[in-house]
Specification:
The chain has about 160 residues and is of the alpha+beta class. The protein is about 15% helix and about 30% strand. The chain is built from 3 helices and 9 strands. The N and C termini lie far apart (about 75 Å).
């Protein structure tokens, strides 16, 4: 062995032996654990099964006037107590924390579309005048759990979208 290596190894062994033979110092008390998620205003981390979950709800913002003036409807939304993901079917009902998607209907159309992206809804080329968009928060089997209707007016003007 080289002199440097032998000195480093022997020094480490001596340090380890000294540390092991020293009397254990009293442990300092550990800081208090953080408060539960519910007490702190946060929802639980979506990484463990939840034994019980509050009912899901939907929050939808009104479209911004600047975009409406251009003929563009941008609707931000969020689900509470449900994660929006593109997963469907009865087997997904057992996923915890709860998952789902949204259904969207414009102006009472007899049809709707489903979206599992969680991204804002962007609707363009609506004619000037009053409109409404219905958004339903649905479970993986398409059962609607909560819904909101947003009414707005697309003003007349230059619509470039």
């Amino acid at each position: 062995m080289t002199h440097f290596f032998r000195t480093a190894v022997l020094g480490s062994v001596a340090l380890l032996a000294t540390a092991c033979s020293a009397a254990a110092a009293p442990a300092t008390p550990s800081p208090a654990p953080p408060p539960p998620a519910a007490a702190s205003g946060w929802s639980p981390a979506p990484v463990v099964p939840l034994p019980s979950q509050p009912p899901p709800s939907l929050v939808v913002d009104a479209p911004l006037p600047e975009q409406l003036a251009m003929g563009l409807v941008v609707l931000r939304y969020r689900a509470e107590n449900l994660r929006i993901v593109p997963v469907y079917g009865p087997a997904a009902l057992d996923v915890s924390p709860r998952i789902g998607h949204i259904h969207v209907t414009v102006d009472d159309a007899p049809w709707h579309w489903a979206d599992g992206s969680g991204e804002p809804l962007i609707i363009q080329a609506l004619p000037p005048g009053p409109h409404k968009v219905w958004i339903g928060l649905a479970d993986p089997t398409h059962k609607v759990l909560d819904s909101k209707t947003v009414s707005f007016v697309v003003p007349p003007g230059n619509h470039h979208h």
